[in-house]
Amino acid sequence: MTLSADVRRELLSLARQSIEAGLREGRRAPYPGSVLPEDIGVRCSFVTLRIERELRGCCGTINPERHLAEDVWRNAWAAAFSDPRFTALTAAEYPCSDLHISVLSPLEPLVVASEVELLNVMRPHRDGLVLELGGSRATFLPAVWEQLQRPVDFLRQLKLKAGWSADFWSSQIQVFRYTAEDFGKAGEE
């Protein structure tokens, strides 16, 4: 389901409001609710912040748990203030930050017998990927293909993100793919 321009604008506005409330109050503000121009239901999102094209925070969900508008509200705050890779966004940094939202399709399980088989079914520049084994889980959004253009590099880096070695493989790894509808900076909707 492609989101309308009005829904995209409303979600971007909600994300900004969440971050601005966090800057004012020093904590996550309660979700204020939202009246979207169409029903978009329970969906997953990631919110990414960049400053001068450098990642400044990225948080999201891959399992649908709440209405998309609330998911964006929570993930915007988390990207700005609780991504463990970064210190909290400051009021001075906020005007320089670019906000980007990715709305995920439902996860599609991939049944693969080997890493070679997975590499053969990956769709570069289209798929996001989730790897899961035991208590470890990692994902790369489709946008990561911009930095890691070869499937083998994409997969190796994702395994490193999961805490495994780049050449690790187990027949027990669960693999899921998804696509994403992306909007926001660059090219604010």
Characterization of this structure:
- This protein has 189 residues and is α+β, with helices and mostly antiparallel strands.
- The protein has two domains: 5-104, Hypothetical protein ph0010, domain 1 (Glycoprotein, Type 4 Pilin), CATH 3.30.700.20; 108-180, Dna Ligase, domain 1 (2-Layer Sandwich), CATH 3.30.1490.150.
- It has four helices and eight strands, in the order H-E-E-H-E-E-H-E-E-H-E-E.
- The protein has helices spanning 5-25, 68-81, 115-121, 151-161, and strands spanning 44-51, 54-60, 97-104, 108-110, 128-133, 136-140, 174-178, 180-184.
- A hairpin with a 2-residue loop joins strand 1 (44-51) and strand 2.
- Helix 1 crosses helix 2.
- The chain is globular and about 50 Å long.
